[in-house]
UniProtKB/TrEMBL annotation:
<dbReference type="InterPro" id="IPR027469">
    <property type="entry name" value="Cation_efflux_TMD_sf"/>
</dbReference>
<dbReference type="InterPro" id="IPR002524">
    <property type="entry name" value="Cation_efflux"/>
</dbReference>
<protein>
    <submittedName>
        <fullName>Cation transporter</fullName>
    </submittedName>
</protein>
<dbReference type="Pfam" id="PF16916">
    <property type="entry name" value="ZT_dimer"/>
</dbReference>
<keyword id="KW-0406">Ion transport</keyword>
<keyword id="KW-1133">Transmembrane helix</keyword>
<feature type="domain" description="Cation efflux protein transmembrane">
    <location>
        <begin position="22"/>
        <end position="214"/>
    </location>
</feature>
<keyword id="KW-0472">Membrane</keyword>
<feature type="transmembrane region" description="Helical">
    <location>
        <begin position="184"/>
        <end position="203"/>
    </location>
</feature>
<feature type="transmembrane region" description="Helical">
    <location>
        <begin position="22"/>
        <end position="41"/>
    </location>
</feature>
<feature type="domain" description="Cation efflux protein cytoplasmic">
    <location>
        <begin position="219"/>
        <end position="292"/>
    </location>
</feature>
<dbReference type="InterPro" id="IPR027470">
    <property type="entry name" value="Cation_efflux_CTD"/>
</dbReference>
<dbReference type="InterPro" id="IPR050681">
    <property type="entry name" value="CDF/SLC30A"/>
</dbReference>
<feature type="transmembrane region" description="Helical">
    <location>
        <begin position="156"/>
        <end position="178"/>
    </location>
</feature>
<feature type="transmembrane region" description="Helical">
    <location>
        <begin position="121"/>
        <end position="144"/>
    </location>
</feature>
<comment type="similarity">
    <text>Belongs to the cation diffusion facilitator (CDF) transporter (TC 2.A.4) family. SLC30A subfamily.</text>
</comment>
<dbReference type="InterPro" id="IPR036837">
    <property type="entry name" value="Cation_efflux_CTD_sf"/>
</dbReference>
Length: 304
């Protein structure tokens, strides 16, 4: 018996609520990405190119977030998709992590190659464009921050903008240093610093997405604790075939077989079990199969 359709709608509506913010951030960063890329080629700045690359992944990531939200909005009504397309946001988050990691690794490799003979860069235009990039990222950061707490997909876009914001600060610092001292090594050094800063964060996001995709139990839940709590429900003689996983951000799902004690009332047991999962573990969607205690093994070989 299942429960929690209202919670699924709440999660979906939360994503829809941030759609306007995503579109605003998408448009702003897309324009600045083109400006930074052109400026990087004209000035010869690898740090600025790194920032433009990160901004590209920002734009791509936000675009995938918008696509996932739009697809989920319509596909969840398809009866053939019994779980809708909630996992699209997880796939988008994983793609964001992979893309951003690739950009960071590429820039670090290129920067290392420049240490032998760092080329001159045009610090003036580099500084002006980096300031524009910083302002754009501050606006995008403020737009995405509220949604980052509700969706792993929005969290991915938020992390990319955060990394790019710090990257813009680094580019500004490098440009100022080159202007004052003609120390050309500042450009590749900042490029490496940007890459080293963002890689651990993207890997963390990627691990979180993979954990959901392989249907591992949520990190904040102990499956043994869920088992013991269900076993403690009055009228439950045993619990087996218990599974707990995350469907998408903020949506934990569970299924279990409950063996009833002699004389227990089915409706009472189901209500108590669902209440326990909701109050103790915030699991809103649970599919619970009731088995009579007089027929052990009635479900066949179901342990997997």
């Amino acid at each position: 018996m299942g429960a929690g359709h209202g919670h699924e709608e709440t999660v979906a509506n939360a994503a829809q609520h941030h759609r306007g913010r995503l579109w605003a951030a998408f448009g702003l960063l897309a324009v600045l990405m083109v400006v930074e890329a052109v400026a990087a080629l004209r000035t010869g700045s690898l740090a600025l190119l790194s920032d433009a690359g990160h901004m590209f992944t920002d734009v791509l990531g936000i675009g995938m977030a918008l696509a996932a939200i739009t697809a989920t909005r319509h596909a969840n009504r398809d009866p053939q998709r019994t779980f809708g397309l909630y996992r699209l946001e997880v796939l988008a988050a994983l793609a964001n992590a992979v893309l951003l990691s690739g950009v960071a690794v590429y820039v670090v490799i290129e920067a290392v190659g420049r240490f032998g003979d760092p080329p001159e860069v045009l610090a003036g235009p580099m500084l002006a464009v980096a300031v524009l990039g910083l302002l754009a990222n501050v606006v995008a950061f403020l737009l995405l921050r509220p949604g980052a707490k509700e969706s792993i997909n929005l969290q991915g876009a938020y992390l990319e903008v955060l990394g790019d914001l710090l990257g813009s600060l680094g580019v500004i610092g490098a440009a100022l240093l080159i202007t004052v001292t003609d120390w050309w090594w500042a450009d590749p050094l900042v490029a490496i610093a940007i890459g080293v800063f963002i890689l651990p964060r993207t890997w963390k996001l990627g691990r979180a997405a993979v954990r959901i995709l392989v249907q591992a139990a949520p990190k904040h839940l102990q499956v043994t604790a869920v088992h013991d709590r269900l076993a403690a429900v009055p009228g439950v003689a045993g619990v087996h075939d218990l599974h707990v996983w995350t469907l998408t951000s903020g949506m934990e799902v569970a299924s279990a077989h409950l063996t009833m004690a002699s004389g227990a009332d089915v409706g009472t047991v189901l209500t108590a079990a669902r209440t326990a999962l909701h109050e103790d573990f915030h699991i809103e969607h649970a599919t619970l199969q009731i088995e009579p205690g007089a027929a052990p093994g009635a479900c066949g070989s179901c342990e997997w």
